Structures are given as structure tokens and as C-alpha cells.
Description:
18 helices, Chitobiase, domain 2, five-stranded mixed β-sheet
Amino acid sequence: MKKILPVLGMLAASQVFGLTLTANVELRDESGSEAVVYAVKAFEKDLQRKFGFPARGVAAARFTFRISENWKVSDRHRIEVSDSGVVITGSDELGLIHGIYSFSEEVLGIDPCIYFTGIVPERVRSLDVPNGVTESKPYTFKHRAMFVNDEDLIIGFRMEKQSYGMNMEFMEKLFETMLRLKMTGVIPSTLLLPDEPHLVLASDMGLYINQHHAEPLGSVPLYWPKNIPYSWSTHREHFIDFWSDAIKRQKGKKVIWTLNFRGLLDRAFWDDDPTMSRESSMEEKARVVNDVIRTQYELLKELTGEEHPVICGYLWGELSRLYSSGLLEYPEDTILLFSDSGHGVMGDWNWKLAGKCDLKMGIYQHVSYHNRKTHMRINAIHPDTFQREMGRAVEYGMTNAIVLNVGNFKEKIFGIRQMVNYMNRFEDFKSCENGDWYFDWYAERVLGAKVSAVADSYRDFFESQFVFSEDRKNSGDEYFFYYVEQMLNAAYQNEVDRKLMRPDLFSSSEGRWEVALERAYDCRRFLSGNVLDFYEADLVYPTLKMRHLTGMAVDFTASLEHYLNKEWHKAQLDAYQALLHVREALKAEEWIEQSGWGRFEGWYDHDETARTWHIELLLEHYLDHLKDLKYFNLNYRFRNPKTPGLDYKYQPYFESEYRDDLIWMNNGE
């Protein structure tokens, strides 16, 4: 089948058709860039996805890839289509890479997240492309980076193929996806040594290396020598050696350097400095941080040989409080990153500070956040929040850089795609009153579904979550393990705070999840093939999982109430129902892993944050505790195996063909 390409945004309507593309192409890379080689390799596969494999005797269209030495702007590209072929020119290395992937997405119809979605374009024999020249527009944010954070699922995923903890095949696809989304940089993981293989790979593929707010200059304070006090005032020379080593290992790479001083593991430095404490004055704390930042900056310039290295500082946690007090001092060319709360909300204090700031500004934003109560495995930040907060960030001129925390990435594609729209071209969405437009955009652009029911199924997903505050701080699946663990620890010590039990909140949410699940399953009839497969993994099974985790919370809370009232029999029955819910949630995780052709099998094997598997263990132990004979609430005279009556059918000696299924069988052993 031959297809004529409709006029796209990248090509003017007045232009005429001039080039017919088929599987037969000649790719000529004149860039001399090793990073471009990765993009050309991916582009060749995209052509195969669209056209199939080359045929003999068919003329080949030529693609030429170049970097212009005379184009004095960063990260721009030009695509020229003529009868003789396609020339893609970048103003620099990243500009060319982004140009190649722009052609893949806009002309060939390649989903930029294809590795994770599996959604392939319609196969055609040929494609007519209009002649003409198009040039990319400036991006809204200059530096656009993603932060692979709390990456418990990625560490060890398919590691049987590698001796190193990160599977390099997977990491290459992850970095490729980021480049397809027009990112310029990445923080490849947490606790990252500056010469780790996946960091080197990201740099080799053309990405800038950004750095964690708790890992200044690419150092990892957690690896600080245990026999040396973590004190700037007493062991200054050791810090200088520590940072110098990190800088030298990254010399020659494209790096955006973090200037900061924090503790051993994402906390305030005074929690680890034996000469300081939380009671130390704000002025004392700021004096140390300012001295550190000055030293880091001079050290960086000396060791890199750069007079103006690209530097940033994060206003995260205690550093935000010090800066808001007017006590912190950064070099004048610092990009100051204002941080959201982890739930997508920047907070009024950030806007007030931004209005007074005379440094270059950017933002640190989350689509994924780990604090034991939040949303590592589902999308829980409402599109309204992103629309509002990003609009204000652009209004305040905080567009020099953005770092987007994406967690393990795979579960967050819905939120990531919305944020990428803003990071690249906020102007296109500026007029939208709220984020509701995005549900329809995602259903149509990602899933190809123009029926409103599919978009509504994503709306239902957000409306079904229970909310802790007016700022839409929705609970994600990470909350449930925390809740069960916290409440059981308190119950075993007779210290339960009933205010934390929230049965009404859980019950109302459970009802909403049931309706959302019905609608999500019904929407499958509108989709097919790989699109249906992705929709199930992206929405249907997460909805199923959340329905059962919420049901678990309902039954566990009821069981706990009975436990506190010493109604052991009722406590056990509700605990068993809670356990069944968790096992259904684990099945949903298995189905997510099995989606596609099993390329994500074992994805949850190293789950150390949401820990659904651990809820099952906790409830099994809780049931064992309840089944102990001293908590058995039936009188001893009813322990006769011949006792009749439904009231006593759960006794361990009750004779029944269903005996093996009874939940108190262990009491009889």
C-alpha cells in the first residue's frame, strides 16, 4: 500500500510532493559524532518498522546527517526534503540527534516511547513526503533533563545478562527514549559514581550528565570513609580530595555540575557533622554551605579548565529554607533550581522567592516521588497540577533548566508525556484553562483512540484515588505497605492511633475504583493489537491493582478495629479477606510484566519501595498471630470436632470436605 503523507506541522501546506520513501534508503552520516551513530542506528530500525525490509531493484532515497559549523545556536535542527533525498542538519550534536528523532516521530509516525509502549506505526510500502525546508523552534526550557531516581525496579532488571547491576541494553533504550523526547540531559541513577558504565553510555549517546541535589559535583557522600568525621570545619582537605576525584573522572564529558552541601544520604549536613546540630543557628549553617559552594566552584574551574562551567544549585529541603532566609550565596552564573513538594506543587514560597531572584532560574519537578506514602508505581499527580505549576514557572522566567524526576520511568509515561509537552513547547498549551485537555490528547495521540470513553477511563483513574489534602496529594500504591506496616507495629505494642485508620476514606475510594475498573475493562473493545496491550498495562491492570489494594486497606482496617476490641474471630476473617486482595494485586503486577512479548518479565523482582509483595508477608504473619490459640475467641467447650452449627464451622476440627481450604487449619496441628 502506498500512502500520501498529510501536511504536518513541520511542513508548509503550499509545498508539493517530491520524495517517495520506501524501505530502500541510503544513510550517510557526515557528522563525525559517535553519539549520532546511536541515533542513526535507531533511525534505521524506525524505517524498518514503517516500511519493512529493503527490496531489490528499487531506487534508494538518500538521508544525509550533518552538523553545521556556522549555526551559532544550540540544540536546533533543519530538515530539507527534495527530490534527491533528505538532509537533516543540527546546529550541534544534540540538535542533529533531535532532528533525526523528529523525522521519525512526525513523518514515520514512531511513538517516542516505543520501547515501553510497543505501539508500532501503520506499515506501508511507500510514503510521499512534500519537498521543503523546516527549521525547529526554540524549546521552552533550555536544559531539559530526566532524573532516574529510586530506581529499584531498574537495578537488577535482566541483570542475568550482565555482571554489572544495570542492564546496559535496557539503559541504552531508556536513554534513546529520552532523546526521542528531546531531552538534553539525564541523571542516570541515584548513588552514582562518576565513571559507572551507564553514566558513560548516557554521555556517549550525547546527553549532558546532570547531578543529584544530594551528590555535589558527582560525588556520593554515602561512600564517605567511615573513619573520617563528615565535618567541613575539621576535615576540609578530605572533602576537597573527595570532590577532586569526582571532577577528574568526569572531565571531558558534557556536565551540568551541582554545587551543594548536604549530608551522607539526602539529608541536612548538620545531621552528620559532629561539630554541628539541628540547634545550630541558621547563620552558622549557611556560613558552612557558602564556604563549601565557593570552594567547589573554584575547584571545578581549576580542574576542568573552564572559566564558566555550567552549574546549578537545588533549593531542596533545608537549602530552600536557608535561601529563603537570605543567607545562601551562589556564583552569579548559577542556574537556581526551585523544587516542588514531590507532589508536583511548587508552593507559594517558591513564587515569592522567584520574584526576588536575580540569578538564572529553573525548576526541579516530580512525576514520581518516594517518601513511603506516595506514588512510585502509578500516575497520581493530576494534569491540572502540572498545567497550573508549569504555567507559573514559565511566567516567572524559570526556564533555563528543568530536572524531571521520573522514578523507574515505565509506570510514568502518562505524566512524562504531559510534562515533555510543556518542557519543549509550552506555548502550544498556554491558552488551556486547566489540564483536562491532556486526557483527550493522550488517548488520541498515544493510543489513537478518538472515543471519549478511553480518555474518560484515565480521568476515572485520578478521581478514584483518595486525597490527603486540597493540593491533590493523592495516595499511590506505595502508601499501602507503609500503612499496614505502621499500623501493625503500633497494634503489637498497643499504641494504635485510630485517627490514622481512615475507614471512610478507604471505603469511598474502593467504590470508585470498582466503577473505574468496570469502565476500563469495557474500553478495551475500542482498541486492538499492541495498543490494547499497552492500554492494559498502562491503565487496566494498575486500576485493578489499586482496586484490590484499596480493598485490602478497607478489610485490614476493619480487622484492626476488631483486634483492638479483642474480637479475634472477626479480626481473623477480615484479615483473610485483606490477604486475598493483596494476592489479586500481585496478580495484576504479574499481568503487567507479561504484557507485550514478555520484554518486562521480572520487572517487579527488585521492588523495594511500593513492596506489594511485603504486604502479603505482613498479613500472613498477622494471620499467624491471630490464629494462635490464646487469641481464639470461641470457648473451649466448642472445640469438639462434632460441634454442629454454622457459628462454629471455622473450628480447626470441623469435619468437612472443604477442610483444606479453612483458614484455621494450622490450629489443629
